[in-house]
């Protein structure tokens, strides 16, 4: 190893220097704390009490509470939390002051900060509960740190302790600032502080610091254990623990910080374009990508290759002189346009760097789903397409992303689609300096082309914009309209041109036919050629015609019949469709036609497309209702569609639809005969008089024997029998008919088949009732609707089906928690929300009860009459039976958490809607959020109403116990219900029945005393364990096991009862093995690991994988959840296996998990995790290679581009590292070394043209080729990376250049170009300083504004503008296509909307990079850093570097054998003399622009001199 630096040889570990560095750090941090506390004191130092202690703070808290009698009942709980937090601060403060040489009192400053908060918020109702909730959150981190102090802490942990205190003061400061913002309000929710974004940001920083602290504790434990065991047999085990690479707990902090800039830019762009940033992650499949994947997955090998050879296409793609930037692919319906478009996307992406250039290709695409029921008008299509295309362009190219984000950050919103294209693309000056070509591909716009005409005209008019090229598919009329708009473009007309694709399709179909697949037989080969030629010449390239003929050919083996079919291939599409319909009318039975008409009903009028199993359920439901063809069939729907019902097909969405467009228009409308199966309009029905005419004619021209021979009489009789059974569509009655179907599904007893239609029925019944036009609907249908609607709201089974018949939202393997059951975002789409929380149900009832036909059979019932009374509370009356059913479930039912909470929400929802009378346009999520903040008053309100509904005069023990249980369930989500409330209710139950199980359990859950809770649980468990009859009831064993786990958790809280806890956990497994119980053991296993009880971890894991009562299916599901349940599960498993030397169990875990899922990304994750576990095993590292290579072979199983790209980058990075490591370890075996080198080079050649190769992967390949001495190949790898970085530096804004200089530093470091690397590091520091300068300016402006506001000067500015945030975008902002959904989006109300532009600027993290050791140190200045030249990614401070060298530190993907260089402490005077706009290259000042030109020449153009080497 060569460590290179001017003074590197003199660097040694100096304890005195370390002491000084530690004290300097502590002093610097605490100076910031004192300054902040002084600011909180309004700049008055006299307000800070240096002698403040815990008792003083609590005494002041008591005094503040004296006048707040209303809060007195809950105050003891809040005071306990305050006391606990103050004690933790005292302990942690002691850690800091004991380790520092300077004398100061950290805890005292924190006490002062908290006192200022108490003083500011005094007098506000419930505020101290809110503060207690905040402190409870903080104490989660402080308590653990305080525990570690008991065994002593090293300086690194002491530094972290100091940072914890500094963050606590910042949290107090934030709470003080919120008081200024909230001056106009007098009542607050419990979650006031925790709901604040700024507070959450600080808590997240505390969480991240806790992760760092955890790594340090493990490292410190290892260090101490290693000392104690140096001469013992445990040394080997401890060495294995050390080899689990503890430093990886803080690995990647630097890179993550750099990537946060990119994510921030993406978020800015997403918001400006109208997307929800949380839905635009690269790891999520976007609507446009899902559509592309569906079409691409159906491609035949070789599809579209002819287009790549087409001269017009090649000129367009290359941007040749004279070529139009717009290319059209013209064809009619079924011409193969979408197939062709989907085949060309990937080749366009691979155009990057052709002919040795650095030009990148960025492709954005959009497939218009013509049959999507979510797309209701052209405006939505144009808006969705424009926003999707621009978002794809921006997020696919970092330089362009940076530019677009800058524009979006300034303009915030756009006035129109034209404005988007103009500002972000057409007039974006940054595009001039970017070496990339944009390809925009849009399929199927046709009538919706208007939204892109502006862009097309602009591109057509300007030759300078040739690097933006557009590819369109569409009909002849669409291109005529484009041409008439003055757009110049090139065009390829499909038909003759795409014959190669047609021939591929015909060949693939024939290869699947039993009669034609054996092409070696001469007669078969001849017939195949005839079919290929005929279909290619007679069908005009119409895939529908071709497919129809091939369908018929597949059903016959007779040459004559095939030739007859080929003769009809040239019929026009409309003629073909009409012929198909008539053929079905003639050949299908009455039952089959009835089913065809039912399918037509659902395809035409259902709110969303039905999947095959749902359509089968619809047919079964139709059969249950009786009527023509009521019998069911054993044939599957797929078989029927293939063999009998040729109008339909299962499309690429796996949904039932018409086989081709145009069929719906050709289906005749039903005549109004009152008979559901009445004949259609037109002349399709054969009349008796017409039969008589034909008979008379035949009797004249045919001899009697010939007449009889042909069976004409039987034929005519068949025609007359078919009267009334014809294929038709009935638009007038479609929605009321589907409403009847939905109500029948919900009311009746469902079979296993019809159950799959329940969700559709519950979620879409309102829609069909709203759409039904009662003025034209048939009377008998309306009468039936009245009867079913009344039954729906009054019968128990129907109520359950509609309002809470869905299965629990939570996965049983993870347990059902309050949050997962009633999370607002999870329930927004639930069917009962529209009925209960809005006016839709009342509106529909008024519509139905206002029609005399609907009332015909229910007019004697009380509900319609009560509902129609003038002064009636319609909402309560309509849902009275629903409420009664829910009340019985809550207070008289069982213990089911899911049922109780759902029913409670229904009750409180009805009450809230009846009393608050909110506007019906209030979003569902907003209403739900208000309901979910459950208070004791809300519970009491529901209880009082339930008592009245159920006519209960005296509440029994069961009722009171159910209420106690309800309080427990609600508390798990919101702390407005305290342990005191639960305890009071439980004691009330015990007064009635001292042995009541529910009350004893709830009391134990709520009890403050751990010992008393243990005693209660133990007593209860022993009693229930022996109750055989009780345990025989469904779910009770799971309840008992839950109690055992709760008891074990109580034991686990004490270090002295760990063994008792373990024994109790095992008892729980002996009682129950349901998913609910096993789900809790996922977290129990990780708890074992946290206390290094790997022996118990292994025993439990073995029990859970192959113990008594554990089936293979249960074991597989548990293994899958275990691996997916934690972000670092593979590290813990590796540590466990190494500790106990049970690598066989690791294999079992991962092999079982692989059998539990078929989802490609989960399979990828399992394999790569397993490989990392195997790679961690000393001496057996090569075992990981087959697993990784297996994952590599399966990458194409991941069908989503974004996910596959992410997975590919991660996998290749790992493989390159593993191959490199093996080549080093096997250095004495040249053949083996050559083998691994070949593998790396093979990977590069295979993936070098992949779209969006990650930066780290490029650097890894660059490092490999550089160290192999292949400089040309090395430069080829990073040429585009350097070019992109330089493009991003082309603007004058230095504060967003940090990531670009980081990328350059990686390249320079690996190549050993130290002078340029030093410049990159210097500029990173300047970039961070510029960021902080901008922050200070914003902070100063904000402080001044707040000061004025507090005086009342700016009070008027608090009035929010009338327009919403997106008011300047008068567009339908749909989230993509959203096929099959409601097409609606609930907007979450922003609690602080009036202050949205006045929120305090967030202080930026200006850390340049973090140490990749285990110390967590971060550099604010680019000095005194050791940097690994093998990867460029690894940075170490002096202490960690020395530990790496002496073998006491393990750093992932790094080793002491690697080359490092050192950035020494710089000469500040020398750097200060460098002119502005210049950098120091060696000893010479050079203009920054000249430096960038030199870098470009050396690394991009590859024509410059060799860089200066160290």
List keywords for this structure.
single chain; 1510 residues; mainly alpha; 5-stranded parallel sheet; disordered N terminus; disordered C terminus
Structure description:
Strand 14 and strand 15 form a beta hairpin. The longest helix has 37 residues. The chain is mostly helical and 1510 residues long.
* Overall 3D shape: globular
Number of strands: 15
Tally of helical segments: 68
Q: Give the strand order of the largest sheet, numbering strands 1, 2, ... along the chain.
A: 3-4-5-2-6
Task: Please state the CA-atom Rg, rounded to the nearest Å.
Answer: 37 Å
- In percent, how helical is the residue content? 55-70%
* Biggest sheet character: 5 strands, parallel
Q: How much strand content do the residues show?
A: under 5%
- The N- to C-terminal Cα distance equals 14 Å
Which stretches of 5+ consecutive residues score pLDDT under 50?
1-16, 67-75, 99-104, 147-152, 181-191, 212-251, 674-683, 806-829, 1354-1397, 1503-1510
**Average pLDDT across residues?**
79
- The computed structural class is mainly alpha
